[in-house]
Amino acid sequence: MEDITRRDLLHKTINSLIGLWVAATSVLSGYAGIRYIWPTEKTAGPPGEKKISFPIVELQEGGMKKILIDGKPAGIIRHNSKLYGLSLICTHLGCIVSWHPEEKRLICPCHAGIYDINGAVLGGPPPRPLPSYEVREIGDKVVVG
Ligand code: FES
Questions:
Q1: Mean pLDDT value across the chain
Q2: Domain span at residue 27?
Q3: What is the best residue among 86, 91, 92 to mutate for testing ligand 1's pocket, by most ligand atoms within 8 Å of CB?
Q4: What total number of domains does the chain contain?
């Protein structure tokens, strides 16, 4: 039988702790990434839900709020006090596009597809514009769909 020295035991313990730390960090990073991509339940409509509303105060001027419409990611953008509702699914191969307020563009991280604030293709491989959603401001709420 192999003798285990104190040094070996210490090394194994440290390696195990490092492994646990890496695993925990990976799980937490993955969770944070999923929370970033998928919106909160409050604005997440289940499949079949085509009408979503949320308080207007949740949408800053120049910002975008991510929601789910019919189970699919969409973004509501407020720019110059006007509201825009767009699918966030790139029409090229389906990656999730992100809003870049400083450029007033949506950019796909996968192959650099570029869309304007109306969803029109400005560059890259996307073959079609982003589908849009009807967005209205009713009282203190934003109603989509
Ligand atoms: S998936 Fe968006 S540009 Fe290719």
A1: 86
A2: 1-37
A3: 92
A4: 2
